[in-house]
Amino acid sequence: MLAFAVVRPRGLPEAVAAVPAALLVIAFGALSPQDAGEQTRTLLPVVVFLAAVLVLAQLCDEEGLFTAAGDLVARLCGGRPRRLLGGVFAVAAVITAVLSLDATVVLLTPVVFATAARVGARPLPHVYACTHLANSASLLLPVSNLTNLLAFTASGLSFTRFAALMALPWLAAIAVEYVVFRRFFAADLAAGAQVPGTDEPREVPVFTLVVLALTLAGFVVTSFAGIEPLWAAVAGAAVLAARALRQRRTTVAGLVRAASPLFCLFVLALGVVVKAVVDHGLDTGIDRLLPDSSSLPSLLAIAAVAAVLANLINNLPAILALLPVVAPAGPGPVLAALIGVNLGPNLTYVGSLATLLWRRVLHEHAVEPKLGHFTRLGLLTVPAALVASTVALWGTLQVIQG
Amino acid sequence: MTVPMPDPPETGPSETRTGPPGTDPKRTVLVWITESTWPACVDAARERAPHDAVVLLHVSDDEVAAAAHHAYEGLLGRGHRPERDPGARLEALSGTAAADLLEAAAHRLGRPCELLDHHGRAEHEVVRAAADAALLICARDGERGHPGPHSLGRVTRFVVDHAECPVLLVWP
Predict the structure, then answer these.
(1) Is residue A355 in some structural domain?
(2) CB atoms < 10 A from the CB of A402, how many?
(3) With A372 labelled, which of A43, A245, B26, B77 sits at a CA distance of 20 to 30 A?
(4) For residue range A295-329, what is the model confidence (pLDDT) as tens digits?
(5) How far is CA A338 from CA A242, A345, B91, in A?
């Protein structure tokens, strides 16, 4: 099934293979229907949360929030590419944290490219900043990455406590990326740019910004009130959706597409399949490999194993396989595993070695642009960011839990 | 792609001697147009090669769109609808950006010239195009009066190392 998800014959959605695979797993008794049902019930709130955030991000884009952010960055940092990089880092880090990595990859990257072109700066460092921060700036909130939502559910942490524990690791990863990018792209960033022409500033979507801020506040309030924070995301998405529908700027079909129902289905099916694999021996295998204490060496080892696993099989199956093993040891190991699976993917070109190998087979003769260039950037950022983030996590755990 | 000079020349010192490209194939000067440093190269062509046929070349590096495309592909399970692929959107955007840049460069040159809009690996495209030129004009990347970073980035370094024609390297 994983092979299908990576290969995707004729561009079919991954759910086409994942759902039958999940049903087969149950039919052959690898997982009892009760266990499968329980796993699905556990994952269902995660998937609803995910869909709400995807809709929220899409509506924010349609209301012009991303272009407004691009305008702001161009105005503040236009004439100087180094400041432009700083601005891109800030916007990409915040958007990834609040609206998830999908928003940064799909919706923000084109805006950043257009911004760089507008001020006449070279686009490469800024586009790479988006692709890297989509992974490394996705540590902060449970909503930033699907892997976070899965770990968040398994860890039993509250929304605010998760964010408090991950704030320093998030900043540490971004800081490492920034330092490496400044050096790696030094020549491109020294090349200069122009202050953008004073064309009429586009309208800032105030309503959307307010709804987004209230949604964030809602995450905090619900977590203190003991309510599932997913309701805050659903409410925020519902308000924006209702407004867009009333103003005829979106359709019900468009909203359903934005929620990516097939992706949600894929996550549920993947959860069932991975549970079957984990129950049949993978857990003991990983268990033997992983330490289960919250000491610094243990956390570093867990993060490293998680990063390697994410690079081998992609980060979603990796975190699903790791969670049952690390969850009993408490939030420290869970969050260390999360750091590994979130930062790791910057090392390989397309998320995992499995995908990469297949692409190699498929496009044997096509010219892959500068694989080495990308990999060098990954080698410089990923190990350093892994260590910095994990040390930051360990430090935070000492202060907050000690 | 070869584009004829869109506007008639406005200013410029001695247009009288230069005809349309190709009429007097004495020398072809290739000017490599890159983001942010191109004005210095165009100015150098005006000052140092006022009577030569000028070719303005811009290369959109495929790596930019590929980075976005692969980041999208790396997201497992999203179904990957082509209309959401940021790589495709970047390709379209970079086409427009390159055309704008070449138009601005031609305007600054102020006389008829040939415009080349290539894509691929920038260093290879420039070296290939320079094989037929009498002179290649390109700019340093770094800052004048600042000790570091290197004034030649990776791509410019390769071009300077491997271009077969003489290279005029100017400060931006």
Answers:
(1) yes
(2) 5
(3) B77
(4) 999 999 999 999 999 988 888 889 988 988 888 88
(5) 35, 12, 33
- Whether residue A50 is contained in a domain is answered as yes
- The answer to ipTM > 0.90 is no
3-state DSSP assignment of residue B38: helix
Residue A11 in any domain: the answer is: no
Domain that holds residue A282: 31-401
Q: For residue A229, tell me if it sits in a domain.
A: yes
Nearest to B148 by CA among A122, A190, A83: A190
pLDDT per position as a tens digit, B2-16: 444 444 444 333 333
The CA–CA distances, whole Å, from B129 to B39, B50, B59, B123 equal 20, 21, 11, 10
Q: Do B67 and A127 touch (CB under 8 A)?
A: yes
Number of domains in chain A: 1
Counting the structural domains of chain B, the total is 1
The CATH number for B113's domain is 3.40.50.620
What is the least distance, in Å, from the CA of A365 to any CA of chain B? 15
Residue type, B34: T
Domain range holding B156? 2-170
Q: Which of A15, A107, A351 sits opposite B75 (nearest CB)?
A: A351
A122 contact residues in B (CB cutoff 8 A): 34-36
Q: For the residues of A307-371, what is the DSSP string, one character each?
A: HHHHHHH-HHHHHHHHHHHHGGG-HHHHHHHHHHHHHGGGSSTTSSHHHHHHHHHHTSSS--TTH
